[in-house]
Design brief:
268 residues, alpha/beta, TIM Barrel, 8 strands, globular
């Protein structure tokens, strides 16, 4: 008989440990497996803006399983049917975007919880999450191993933040800097002083409420600054951005004669 795997990411957050992550947008299990061995604590499989569906997410979950990294899956929205399906695929940590009020957060808690306290449908005989009913402790342990992260990324969400933070079983709150900047009238300017000030205040409030604060911050200077304020789970890079940047630097370096050695031996 198998046992339900421990959610090491959730344990680390509750223990106050810093957790460094990386964003997966390539929708590819080989890339996910490669990056899972690079030392990051968690990898975000993006189902909101990347071309992922249930099959590609499943393949990436399988690729990350058994590596040092923990998979977090971002859904396109808080649809309870989608939540049920991704939990059955074996995702133990979900990030739900665009949460603007406490009622939405409470609905998400119900969506991840089996009856009688929630509305998650029971289909463990068909579910990878329970090893197809081979995890005998699944129903006893599922609540403690699921991690619910919600995104606040609008002016409305910040106005309702205190009520959102009072919702039990929300393990972490992720500040979405790009959408927050747009909501504040600074589209494409997530490092704008007013946006930065709002993020700083939000991080402090999240930590004061006893929840983990997270964000995606690709600027090392800004990431260090937010960490000092209490940002606990932070994604430091994005695979698509890094691939494009690295490829461009390789080409421009070769053309200019300043490329240097990429670390290889000249052959594959």
């Amino acid at each position: 008989m198998m046992n339900t795997p421990e959610n090491t990411f959730k344990r680390a957050l509750r223990a106050g440990q810093q957790q460094y992550g990386y964003w997966l947008g390539l929708a590819d299990p080989v890339a996910a497996e490669m990056l899972a061995h690079t030392g990051y604590d968690w990898l975000l499989i993006d189902g909101e803006h990347a071309p992922n569906d249930r099959q590609t997410v499943l393949a990436q979950l399988q690729a990350i399983t058994g590596t040092p990294a923990h998979a977090v899956v971002r859904l396109p929205d808080g649809n309870p049917t989608l939540i049920k399906q991704y939990l059955d695929l074996g995702a133990q940590s979900l990030l739900i975007p665009m949460v603007d009020n406490a009622a939405q957060a409470e609905a998400l808690v119900r969506a991840i919880t089996y009856p009688p306290h929630g509305m998650r449908g029971v289909g463990t005989a068909l579910a990878r999450a329970s090893y197809w009913n081979q995890a005998g402790d699944y129903f006893a342990r599922v609540d403690q191993e699921l991690c619910l992260l919600i995104q606040v990324e609008s002016v409305a969400a910040l106005e309702n933040l205190d009520a959102i933070l009072a919702v039990e079983r929300v393990d972490g709150v992720f500040v979405g800097p790009a959408d927050l900047a747009a909501s504040m009238g600074y589209l494409g300017q997530p490092a704008h002083p007013e946006v930065k000030a709002a993020v700083e205040t939000t991080i402090r409030k999240i930590r004061a409420a006893g929840k983990a604060a997270g964000s995606l911050v690709t600027s090392q200077v800004l990431a260090k600054h937010y960490e000092a304020l209490g940002l606990q789970f932070v994604a430091l890079g994005v695979d698509t951005l890094d691939l494009v940047r690295s490829a461009g630097q390789t080409l421009s370096g070769h053309r200019s004669g300043t490329g240097g050695d990429n670390g290889g031996n000249g052959a594959y």
